């Protein structure tokens, strides 16, 4: 019943807060007037807070669902865009194929037109064969009008002269005139738009040559003059019609991987002419190059050898000359897959089919292996090398740290494997390790710092060493069989990554001045995780030792100073009295503590009831020293041997010197006997335990501790001596 009332109250409160006329100030005023006191307001506040948390959870749930739908929609849009691009490409090819069918009748038509023109000249009537046919929008340069389409009667010199005249009006493109056989096909004004937001960028003028497209920008201060902007080879250019979407209309897109540009024509007619003339020029260029390749691959007879030759060196040269055409016969580039290879590579790169692109390259390399390299083959290789460069850039971007680092090291396998197949093993190794370094750095930086240091170190070690282990396994999978230099690079990277880990570790453990026991536990956890890398043959223990040795030395020195100061303070207040623990429970607890410290014969130092026949200073020193030794042994590795040993000796000397001094200065016989009993406990019980435990933890005895214990004989032989034994 109470739960039903609570639910109804929450529903009523939600409706009240969601109402359109809700005013927070008025609501709080009414609530204050109606409440019985502070408790009522607190309960109401809790209800509002619970409602806010419930609303926040609902919002998170809705955002997550919408986000998933958004991702799925974006993926579908991407697939659809790719399919539409392929469909547009196929339709363009079909159109080109259909338009090329009547071209077989052109030779006959050209012959008939020539006969008619000749007849017209004999009759004294002027015909169209003596001048160029002009087509295109108004405002084009003189001589070609708007559509500068040369007729068959125009000679190469006239075409070159027209091109020279036009390009003199464009700054920065004189190098174009160096290409032989290049002439202007079409030109006109265009407006360029930004591809993403469809914002107008600039006015440009396009010059379509028989093998390339030049884009020039207007110079406002110099009427009729332009500045060179870009040059695109037609064989690397794709033209896409952009559907009209008022006010954006009469547009078409030029695709030049990895960029694209959108241009707007003056009207629909000029846009159509641009699309048609671009496709026709591309088709003509492709047909021309195909014929050149067929002619280069066609067999030729051996050259005629003169019987008058008397120079033996000339004979050798003439005998060798016929061999090159025979070799060139074997390089057949007329196959369809070779002709379409550059375009197929562009499609694979655009669709992110990296494996397909590399397969095509392997197929071509296998086909051309061991064959000569005539000009057609060189030209094909130049085109393919450009695609290889583009493919490499895309794969490099896939491995860049700017990309998403989710998915772990396996997410990089695709790009790495294709770079290795392309012969870029060193670059693949460098990019893979750089990507993983960024991932490890991000994972450590995003790790939440907990209040408990040991809990944070557990999480830090799990995140770092798991990432390191996964990276090592993925590296071994990806680069198996490659040169050994990659493995050296991985070791260097692992050391660098370990330095990143130690920085975060030391900042949390040593810079925050944690206790020695906490630091020892944290170092122990790090060592255990580091030893797990030995399962894959990777031992980085020596690296973590080398990186931590300075911080551990500082921690041991700091804790040693604390113990020494505490011992000196107790020594200054020493009264040399027996300990009275008051209760049997306290005595039992002390016995357990001393037993855990390794003092097994502590029973002989206990008296009647709850008395202990030792000084409080000596007992406290024993517990503190053994605690220091136990924690220090957890931190121990060979580089710290002398540091730990010297710290122990300094700590023990403080107590030994105090006992020796008290024994020489005390005049009361009873107190002197009690002091001698405490000295006996130190030398005969505590020091052997320290020596034995140190040898167990380190693996070898400590001569300094043995010498310190042997020095006690002087006290037992001559207790009245005033000479210091130290």
UniProtKB/TrEMBL annotation:
It comes from the Eukaryota. InterPro entries: Cullin_repeat-like_dom_sf (IPR016159), Exo84 (IPR033961), Exo84_C (IPR032403), Exo84_C_1 (IPR042561), Exo84_C_2 (IPR042560), PH-like_dom_sf (IPR011993), PH_domain (IPR001849). One of its GO terms (cellular component) is perinuclear region of cytoplasm. One of its GO terms (biological process) is exocytosis. Residues 285-294 have a biased composition (Basic and acidic residues). It holds the Pfam family Exo84_C. Residues 313-323 have a biased composition (Acidic residues). It is found in: Cell projection, Growth cone; Cytoplasm, Perinuclear region. SUPFAM superfamilies: Cullin repeat-like, PH domain-like. Residues 119-160, 285-329 are annotated as: Disordered. Keywords: Cell projection, Cytoplasm, Exocytosis, Protein transport, Transport. Residues 183-283 form the PH domain. Belongs to the EXO84 family. PANTHER family: EXOCYST COMPLEX COMPONENT 8. The exocyst complex is composed of EXOC1, EXOC2, EXOC3, EXOC4, EXOC5, EXOC6, EXOC7 and EXOC8. Interacts (via PH domain) with GTP-bound RALA and RALB. Interacts with SH3BP1; required for the localization of both SH3BP1 and the exocyst to the leading edge of migrating cells. Component of the exocyst complex involved in the docking of exocytic vesicles with fusion sites on the plasma membrane. This is Exocyst complex component 8. It comes from Vombatus ursinus. The lineage of its organism: Eukaryota, Metazoa, Chordata, Craniata, Vertebrata.
């Amino acid at each position: 019943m109470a739960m039903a009332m609570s639910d109804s109250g929450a529903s009523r409160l939600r409706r009240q807060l969601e109402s359109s006329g809700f005013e927070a100030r008025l609501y709080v005023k009414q609530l204050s007037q109606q409440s019985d006191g502070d408790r009522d307001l607190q309960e109401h506040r809790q209800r509002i807070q619970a409602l806010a948390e419930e609303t926040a959870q609902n919002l998170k749930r809705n955002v997550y669902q919408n986000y998933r739908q958004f991702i799925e929609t974006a993926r579908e849009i991407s697939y659809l865009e790719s399919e539409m691009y392929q469909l547009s490409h196929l339709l363009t090819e079909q159109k080109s194929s259909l338009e090329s069918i009547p071209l077989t009748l052109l030779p006959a038509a050209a012959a008939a037109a020539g006969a008619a023109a000749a007849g017209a000249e004999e009759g004294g009537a002027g015909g169209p064969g003596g001048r160029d046919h002009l087509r295109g929008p108004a405002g084009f340069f003189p001589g070609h009008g708007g559509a500068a389409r040369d007729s068959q009667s125009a000679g190469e010199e006239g075409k070159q002269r027209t091109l020279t005249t036009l390009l003199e009006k464009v700054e920065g493109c004189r190098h174009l005139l160096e290409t032989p056989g290049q002439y202007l096909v079409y030109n006109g004004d265009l407006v360029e738009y930004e591809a993403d937001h469809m914002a107008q960028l600039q006015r440009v003028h396009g010059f379509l040559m028989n093998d390339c497209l030049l884009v020039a920008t207007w110079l406002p201060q110099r009427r009729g003059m332009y500045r060179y902007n870009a040059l695109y080879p037609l064989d690397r250019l794709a033209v896409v019609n952009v559907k009209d979407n008022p006010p954006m209309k009469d547009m078409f897109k030029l695709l030049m991987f990895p960029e694209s540009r959108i241009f707007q024509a003056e009207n629909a007619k000029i846009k159509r002419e641009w699309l048609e003339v671009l496709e026709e020029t591309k088709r003509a260029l492709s047909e021309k190059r195909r014929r050149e390749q067929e002619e280069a691959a066609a067999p030729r007879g051996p050259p005629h050898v003169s019987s008058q030759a008397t120079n033996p060196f000339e004979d050798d040269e003439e005998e060798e000359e016929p061999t090159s055409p025979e070799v060139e016969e074997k390089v057949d580039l007329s196959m369809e897959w070779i002709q379409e290879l550059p375009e197929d590579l562009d499609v694979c790169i655009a669709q992110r089919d990296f494996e397909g692109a590399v397969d095509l390259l392997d197929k071509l390399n296998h086909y051309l292996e061991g064959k000569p390299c005539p000009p057609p083959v060189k030209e094909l290789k130049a085109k393919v090398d450009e695609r290889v460069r583009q493919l490499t850039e895309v794969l490099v971007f896939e491995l860049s740290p700017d990309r998403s680092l989710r998915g772990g090291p396996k997410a990089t396998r695709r790009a790495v494997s294709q770079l290795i197949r392309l012969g870029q093993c060193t670059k693949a190794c460098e990019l893979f390790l750089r990507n993983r370094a960024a991932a490890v750095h991000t994972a450590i930086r995003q790790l939440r710092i907990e209040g408990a240091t040991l809990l944070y170190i557990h999480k830090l070690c799990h995140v770092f060493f798991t990432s390191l282990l996964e990276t090592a396994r993925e590296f071994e999978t990806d680069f198996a069989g490659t040169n050994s230099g990659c493995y050296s690079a991985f070791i260097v990277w692992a050391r660098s990554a370990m330095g990143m880990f130690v920085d975060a570790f030391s900042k949390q453990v040593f810079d925050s001045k944690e206790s020695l026991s906490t630091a020892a536990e944290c170092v122990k956890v790090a060592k255990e995780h580091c030893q797990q890398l030995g399962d894959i043959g990777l031992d980085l223990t020596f690296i973590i030792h080398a990186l931590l040795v300075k911080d551990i030395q500082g921690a041991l020195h700091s804790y040693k100073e604390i113990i020494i100061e505490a011992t000196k303070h107790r020594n200054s207040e020493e009264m040399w009295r027996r300990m009275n623990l008051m209760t049997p429970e306290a005595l039992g607890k002390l016995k357990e503590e001393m037993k855990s410290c390794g003092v097994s014969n502590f029973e002989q130092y206990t008296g009647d009831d709850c008395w202990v026949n030792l000084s409080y200073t000596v007992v406290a020193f024993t517990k503190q020293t053994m605690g220091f030794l136990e924690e220090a042994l957890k931190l121990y590795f060979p580089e710290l041997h002398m540091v730990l040993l010297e710290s122990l000796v300094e700590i023990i000397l403080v107590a030994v010197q105090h006992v020796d001094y008290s024994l020489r200065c005390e005049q009361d016989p009873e107190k002197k006997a009690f002091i001698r009993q405490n000295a006996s406990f130190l030398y005969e019980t505590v020091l052997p335990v320290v020596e034995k435990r140190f040898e167990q933890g380190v693996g070898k005895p400590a001569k300094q501790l043995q010498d310190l214990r042997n020095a006690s004989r002087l006290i037992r032989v001559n207790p009245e001596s005033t000479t210091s034994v130290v």
